[in-house]
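chain below, 214 aa
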Amino acid sequence: MTRTKVAIPKTNASRSSNQAVITTTSKSNGRKSNVTASRSIISSTSSQLKNGKRKKQDTLDEDEYVPSDDFGSDYGDDVDDNDNIVKNAATNQDVTELIGLLQNKTKKKSTLHFKKFEQEQETRLQEARDLIEGDSGIINNWVTEMENVISKLKTKMNENIERKDEFIKKSKLRFEKYKTITAESLDQLTKLHTQSQRIHREFDNGLKQLCNDK
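prediction:
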């Protein structure tokens, strides 16, 4: 039994395996991000290529091997698949970075919106405090109005008290004057009564004397 050695043609796989860095450019918000594929992906790809070659050599017929016309095309398809794997990995990494950028942007927007909302709420609360507790607020206005009302009531009450006091004073003076006049009147009446009695006695005595003289 004779074994035929087959020389497998070299392709661009060696050159693609030597490339350690693949740069892809993705546009996100007008910026370009350079994505570097990891060496582990390239090494795993090259190992897959080597394993594929070994499997094909092991499956060769021990007696005779006639290379077919489709061998080169099949091998080229494998290389293209490996290139697609690398490109897909780079694309996935690019998508991952794009998602990260979108997440960061969304987070920043959410933070800005939340800060803006907090500032608006603080402003509204301050306006409410000023409206309620400020110098020209509701409470101070109410207190001022109540103080004015109380002051007016006190003024009116004081005026009424003064009027009452004045009335009481005048009433006392009038009562004292009435008592004085009454006392004087009683004295005058007493004197008049005494005089009338004296005159009546004198009149009676005069009549008696006239009767006796006759």
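Confidence is low (pLDDT under 50) at residues 1-38, 60-75. The CA atoms of residues 180 and 206 lie 39 Å apart.
thats it, cya
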